[in-house]
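anyone seen this seq b4? input:
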Amino acid sequence: MRCASATYSRVIHSNAGSAERRTGTETWTPVHASAWQAVRVDENLTSVPAPDPLLAEVDVLVGEWRSLPDAAQLLGLTVAQVRSLLDERQLVAVRRGQPRVLSIPLALIKPEVLPALSGTLVVLTDAGFGDLEALRWLFTPDEALADTPVGQLRLGHKTEIRRRAQALAF
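predicted toks r here
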């Protein structure tokens, strides 16, 4: 099932045993029922995720990341407990790197899980933000704050940050 395709590279096999090679650079494939991801197929017909400009921007803004096992070790929890924190929206993670593994921004878990993050994530989700968009907003410096929203949450200014997040919905 394909949503759309630009150029791509793949081999199409017929029932009669013949094969036809079509070449190009990108095709859109479903990741799950409600999301789509660009996949680049190289000359060896190996799927490689196409670079996501939003992920690249968030990567630069966030700086340091930790995989789930590393985050669990840092927090003194099991990986299952960290996954529970993700499921309960007390933390946010995105797939990044090669191979693409769930990663959590270090600023959200060091020295401990940021307590005010959960409610802020709920407000951002209600405003229509996905995980990547929420991370971009949380880590983008704001001139009016003279800091990032995450930095202000660390300082205990959750009311102001959530008010700003609510204003994004309108």
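Residues 26 and 40 are 5 Å apart (CA to CA). Confidence is low (pLDDT under 50) at residues 1-9, 25-36. kinda curious what u guys think
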